# Entry
Amino acid sequence: MKDSTKMVFRLHGWRVDRALHNYLYFVFYDTYVKGALYLTKGVVALLGRFSPTRHVARFIFDRYHAKVLSRGDLSKILQLEETVDLGPDTTGRIIPFRHANRIVLREPTHLAVMDCPCKLELDDPCQPVASCIAVGRPLVDFWLEHCARYHARRINREEALDIIERHRRSGHVTQAFFKVATGGSMGVICSCCPRCCVSMRATALVQRIKGAEGMSQYAPSGYKVARDPERCRGCGGCAEACHFGAVEVREGRRAYHPERCFGCELCVERCPEGALSLYLPEGGLLPLDLDLVREALAGGAR
Ligand code: SF4
Ligand code: SF4
# Structure
């Protein structure tokens, strides 16, 4: 057995079912993701009008989901030198899901990229297809040993940041994925759009289920957007950048709906006038900001 396979079994302790799930998930990445999407489509088509179906969706979403990252928070993750291991007691306000809610970044200077399984599912996906980034040595070693068919390769920080920056410039949201299959913790950072990303497509499908209208497979970053009215000239760039319908610009007048905003920061980067900025509102979800995480590690969780 390969060392990285043994690592997977060690990670899950006695839960052989979860270790196998983890193994199969990455070894058959595209087949798994495609199967999950078709299953969701089938369930929504057949059972979507029955309200109890929302419990099935909740069961899955608690175990597999994403946290939207601002550019600054992403940067801090890619600059991380030391291992971070935080359990649900300190992450409840960052990752508001029941089962997959640990921030574990072991030996985080190890990075790898491979083909995104969501993009492999499409005939004409956004480019480049290689956009899933593994952070931390255990997952990187596993990908390098098992995922040659997805062109897994080691990268450095500059290349990781470059891949994500290119995607952000073409309107892709940066997300960290958490799942029970990887020990309940974060492992992969990806660049997502509603057309390619199976997580975003599954969320749109599940929201058609009776009683599941607000359910989402991705958690907001925690930030909201402030606008400087002196600078804004009503060009509409921010509305075009937003995938979540949180901004509308009509006849030069901008309307912002904070309850729909996921704090992805794409509009801030798109604004040609520098009129927008992120802020952290009181009492909402906390961002996956490693400075806050360090505070939590030091015993100062907010
Ligand atoms: S992109 Fe900037 S300048 Fe244009 S409408 Fe939005 S906030 Fe105003
Ligand atoms: S308003 Fe801006 S930060 Fe909020 S979701 Fe839309 S693009 Fe992202």
Q: What stands out?
A: The first strand starts at residue 64 and ends at 68. The CA atoms of residues 245 and 260 lie 7 Å apart. The chain has a mean pLDDT of 88.
